[in-house]
Amino acid sequence: MTLRAELERRLSAALERAGAPPGTPAIVQPATRAGFGDYQANGAMGAAKKLGRPPRELAETALAEADLDDLVAHAEIAGPGFINLTLSDACLGGQLAAFSAEVIAPRPVTDASPRVVVDYSSPNLAKEMHVGHLRSTIIGDAMARILEHTGHAVLRQNHVGDWGTQFGMLLAFMAEMSSNEDTLAHELNDLETFYRHAKERFDADPAFAQRARDTVVRLQRGDPVCLKLWEQFIEVSMQHCEAVYARLGVGLERRHVYAESAYNDDLAQVVADLDTAGLLTESDGAQCVFLDEFKGKDDKPLPLIVQKRDGGYLYATTDLAAIRHRCRNLRADRVLYFVDNRQSLHFRLVFAVARAAGFASEQTRLEHMPFGTMLGENGRPFATRSGGVVRLTELLDEAEHRAYALVTEKNPDLAETKRREIARVVGIGAVKYADLSKHRTSDYVFSWDGMLSFDGNTAPYLQYAYTRVQSLFRRAGIAPGTTDTTISLAEPAERTLALRLVQLPETLEIVVRDGLPHLLCSHLFDIAVAFMAFYEQCPVLTAEDPALRDSRMALAQRTGTALETGLDLLGIATVDRM
Ligand code: ARG
After folding, report:
1. For residue 120, how far is its CA from the centre of ligand 1 (angstroms)?
2. Pure H helices in 314-384
3. Residue 393: CB partners within 8 Å, gap ≥ 6?
């Protein structure tokens, strides 16, 4: 249990003993201002209002009832009935002593752990991955790591788009070329160009277009020749994705791929189940579900179409099948979808229909975790100078390239290989962090200068703070292991840093609840800032008293662990020097 949760538990119980109705929350939060202590409890005021009692009196009675001695050194009632709490040094010290082993150690995952499906990345395989897939891939991966760390059984699902009409065009184009294996292999090397060429052919030649359409039908019927071409194409495209995942340090593997095509055999059953549930309506020859709560313009009912007039199924049908699979076979308690906010309506409809049909029970939480668009410095969706899509591989090349120039400028004497390695960690880290540190739902401007700056809330700043810790230990000539030193918190800078360190699990709890990794970024940034202040104000290696020196080294060691663990949870690596 986190400190905050423990305070919440005890103060809520005390409120009840003071006369508040059972279940009244104490509403404990980190204090909004330094002068208010470390935490404040706001629950007494609402409860007092309901009871018709003076709020300060209720707060005082609750405080008198509460047993907080092992945690709190100082408590007072403030304003209309806030309870301000200041942690004791013994409490902070205890948390710091158990820091690596307990406070930020991963929680064990057992059979009883909540099962969370995380649907992320999920690119369409017809084309190469581009910046549009970056946010889902990075944010989803960070969330999967954080959920795992906090004791959830995480089931990663890469719902790749590997089915649909585009593939008819691509396969027909492949078929034309397959007489020459070398040309084909060469063309497939560059999926973007391959797609463009196929499309040009499709637009220019009606006979080819017809072949493309026939190919889809043959593919869907399971024609072995088509299937073979399709498998070949998918394999190449998956390899492209995996190369990007490897560079990004994203933990998606083949076993996490559960493609759209994997649901093909379930689609007829999904529609049949909807029919049995009395949910199906035919409209213009298409099979639709209308739910009362969904109305479009002019109050017209808004349908979810699940089968077209020609018998074909849709993206939504596959998503219904996916929910069924995730609930029944994967036994999910919670399903998170890291998908563009433009698909919000799609998910609202699909979730509602899935519940109505009983594919998901009331207890299963289905949550669309939408994100905004990555913009260029001109405020428009991020694109190449000529307005084309930016390939992820090119973007990552540029990130490493720029970071290399930066590292070389700062550290010209480091060996070339070392500088390359640092550039990789800093460059990729900067791109990921720039994305993760923005509120998930807002659009953000992609700026090389901003993300590679050593000032402010950036990856390089955090990675640099981490190297400062490492250099302390190098200069002291000792390895940064955990020692059971008593940590002195006499200096305000020491105490501020200590508090931010022990509060890290509380932030993780909120990140898990709301799917907002930028909160972890801000917290790590606060830790780094607190460390830099501590480093400036509190002599470490030059401290006269050996006990004080050990204490400060121990605080630095906790800082290093927190930064390394926190960045790792975001999928960002660290280096010892840069
Ligand atoms: N392939 C889709 C796209 O690129 C995203 C899929 C998201 N996941 C899902 N279950 N619909 O837009």
Report:
1. 8
2. 315-328, 344-356
3. 128, 243, 244, 247
Residue 344 CA to ligand 1 center (angstroms) comes to 12
Please work out whether the CB of residue 140 comes within 6 Å of at least one atom of ligand 1: no
Centre of ligand 1 from the C-alpha of residue 370, in Å = 12
CATH homologous superfamily, domain 404-569? Isoleucyl-tRNA Synthetase; Domain 1 (1.10.730.10)
Q: Which residues neighbour 537 within 8 Å (Cβ) at sequence distance 6 or greater? A: 491, 493
Per CATH, which fold does 3-87 belong to?
Gyrase A; domain 2 (3.30.1360)
Which residue CA neighbors atom 6 of ligand 1 most closely?
122
Give the C-alpha separation, 448 to 380, whole Å: 16
pLDDT at 481 over 80: no
Using most ligand atoms within 8 A of CB, pick from 157, 339, 389 the residue to mutate for ligand 1: 339
Report yes or no on whether pTM surpasses 0.90.
yes
β-bridge mates for residue 82, sequence order: 78
Determine the distance separating the centroid of ligand 1 and the alpha carbon of 567, expressed in angstroms.
Answer: 27
Q: Give 311-322 pLDDT, tens digit per residue.
A: 999 999 999 999
**Whose alpha carbon is nearest atom 11 of ligand 1?**
319
Q: How far is the CA of 161 from the centre of ligand 1 (A)?
A: 7
CB atoms within 10 A of CB 423: 21
**387 Cα to the center of ligand 1, angstroms:** 23
C-alpha of 90 from chain center: 35
* Spatial distance between the Cα atoms of 200 and 423, rounded to a whole number of angstroms: 39
- Residue range(s) of every CATH 3.30.1360.70 domain in the chain: 3-87
Rounded mean pLDDT, 385-408: 91
Tell which one of 117, 122, 260 to mutate to probe ligand 1, the residue whose CB is within 8 A of the most ligand atoms.
122
Handedness of CA 356, 360, 363, 365 (dihedral sign): negative
What value, to the nearest 5°, has the Cα angle with vertex 524 and ends 521 and 525? 85
Residue range(s) of every CATH 1.10.730.10 domain in the chain: 404-569
